[in-house]
Amino acid sequence: MHNNVDNLFENLWGNYLEVTPSAVRVHELLGSTQKDDVINDHIALRTFNHEKIGLEKLAEHFKAVGYKECGEYHFEAKKLYAKHYEHSDPSKPKVFISELLLEKCSEELQAIVGQMIDSIDESAVTAENFLYSGTHWQVSHETYKKLLAESEYAAWMSAWGYRANHFTVNINYLANFETIEAVNQALKDAGFSLNTSGGEIKGSPEVLLEQSSTLADHHPVEFSDGKFEIPSCFYEFALRYNKPDGELYTGFVAASADKIFESTNAR
After folding, report:
1. Phi and psi of 194, rounded to 5°?
2. Is the pTM of this model over 0.85?
3. What is d(CA 150, CA 73) in angstroms, rounded to the nearest whole number?
4. How would you label 177-206 residue by residue, b for 16+ Cβ within 10 Å and e otherwise?
5. Which candidate, 222, 105, 215, places its Cα nearest to that of 153?
6. Is 39 within 8 Å of 77 (Cβ atoms)?
7. Which of 169, 153, 162 has its CA nearest to residue 262?
């Protein structure tokens, strides 16, 4: 386990950049040259609801550096359960961890994932680098495609494993942009493709959160039967609004998050 929250996020960020080179361009596009204003709102991690590597096991790493559980979310259609965590220092990024409910999936998927989980060394799960350790197994591209037919989420995990699925620019802090529309337009003008599932902007001022995201980069993966380019990770953008009490809303909106998951869909 890490003893330092900033060190943990530096490692997660470095690991994310390895497969998401476009993130550097996003920073150059949105950041102000005068000040460092590309602030990370939250990251998201994926796993399976298996006692060995379930959501709570990932959360331990964040609890060790000062995070507390704040909300839970259900995604019936995608067979996912999630929780979000916040640090005692509100300037630190929020953390969104989801898990695939294996018992709701086919026996074939359960068998494939079971083999993947068997390959993980018990000690790896509590090791300092677990959250950015990638895959602890190797699957074939054929297996990846089989998983993809049933669950994009499971297929993504089989290829990428443990790493931040996305980082998120907090629009509230950007010096040069005030609205999510302006951010989206700048991204499109620069040639980025946005996730349009559920509309380019998910959420609204009424639900106190507006979100958008790029479509995942494509990056090569060494499968057991060859190297193939597949969707890796993406960048999200979030604008938060004040609650009636004047405090900034820090939670997540399940209906919007549901569509954000589709940023890693193949296209």
Report:
1. -100, 155
2. yes
3. 21
4. beebeebbeebeeeebebbebeebbbbeee
5. 105
6. no
7. 153
The pLDDT, as a whole number, for residue 2 is: 79
- The average pLDDT across 81-96 equals 96
pLDDT score for 225: 96
Asked whether residue 140 carries a pLDDT value surpassing 70, the answer given is yes
Tens of pLDDT, residue by residue over 28-82, are: 999 977 767 899 999 999 999 999 999 999 999 999 999 999 999 999 999 999 9
Predicted confidence at residue 267, as pLDDT, reads: 67
Find the mean pLDDT for residues 17-33. Answer: 93
Q: Which residue has the higher pLDDT, 195 or 3?
A: 195
Three-state secondary structure of the chain: CCCCHHHHHHHHHHHHHHHCCHHHHHHHHHCCCCCCCCCEEEEEEEEECCCCCCHHHHHHHHHCCCEEEEEEEEECCCCEEEEEEEECCCCCCEEEEEEECHHHCCHHHHHHHHHHHHCCCHHHHHCCCHHHCECCCCCCHHHHHHHHHHCHHHHHHHHHCECCCEEEEEHHHCCCCCCHHHHHHHHHHCCCCECCCCCCCEEEHHHCEEEEEECCCEEEEEECCEEEEEECCEEEEEEECECCCCCECCCCCHHHHHHHHHHHCCC
For tokens 């390895």, what's the residue? 18
